[in-house]
Amino acid sequence: MKEVTPYKSESAALESLDNGGRFYNVLTQANDGEITSAELSKVAGAFSSKQDMNLYLEMSLADLENKAAILSSLSIELRDTYQRYAPHCLTVSSAMRFNDFGSTAVINGTPKYIDSKSTFSGFIMVPIMTGNVTTFSMIPIMDQYDVYELSTEDSSDTFLLAHARSENKLTETETRFGGYLRELQKDEAGSEHQIYLELKYYTPMLKT
Questions:
Q1: Domain residue limits at 65
Q2: Per-residue confidence of the chain (208 residues) as pLDDT tens digits?
């Protein structure tokens, strides 16, 4: 999971995003007033995923009062891509009722690690290749991810987060998370579908 530091001003955003791309992007010029996919991918560290690039863009612009000014500087191609893959900005409560699996979303809250399989059960479908044939196997989500409950002070609702397994757990502080909305199945029979966020980016929410 990669940390995203939001831009504090429009000028800082333009300076960073209108960067000319990488050395092999010979047709892309820095500071020409147009932000291209090559330039955004350089900053986002996303080489091929349009959803990753737009998720990063959404989170990097989240603190700007006039985000539209930056979006208007996107190239026609990148603007079309943003409109197609723009992340959903959700609350914990609204995310619980969402079912647009495979799309990206940004959600704020405080994560709490679920440390016991006895208090939580959920399964995910994992693809398995056998020769040229792909099949799917259902495994407990905790076998592949660290799982967290995301909550906010103004609601009793919680929402599930899945993060790559690590000895370093997420801190229980207010954070903005971005990632992919995935389907969780509550039992091996496939009943009681639920949704969770597979984490890709985060931004600590420092209170002033």
A1: 2-86
A2: 999 999 999 999 999 998 887 756 656 777 788 899 888 988 888 666 889 999 999 999 999 999 999 999 999 999 999 999 999 999 999 998 888 899 999 999 999 999 876 567 788 877 777 778 777 777 888 888 999 999 999 888 899 999 998 888 999 999 999 999 998 877 654 444 588 999 999 999 875 4
Under 8 Å between Cβ of 144 and 182: no
Q: What are the beta bridge partners of residue 204?
A: 175
Of 86, 114, 141, which marks where a domain is finished?
Answer: 86
Q: Helices 37-44 and 76-85: crossing angle, nearest 10°?
A: 60
What's the Cα-to-Cα distance from 130 to each of 29, 121, 133, 136, rounded to whole Å? Answer: 46, 28, 5, 10
39: how many CB neighbours lie within 10 A of its CB? Answer: 25
CA 66 – CA 160 distance, rounded (Å): 31
Give backbone dihedrals phi and psi of 159, rounded to 5 degrees, phi first. Answer: -135, 145
How many structural domains compose the chain?
Answer: 2
Neighbour-count burial for 177-194, b at 16+ CB within 10 Å, e otherwise? bbbbbbebbeeeeeeeee
Q: Which of 86, 115, 130 corresponds to the end of one domain?
A: 86
Q: Are strands 175-185 and 104-113 parallel, antiparallel or unpaired?
A: antiparallel
In this prediction the pTM is: 0.86
* Cβ contact 195:101 at 8 Å: yes
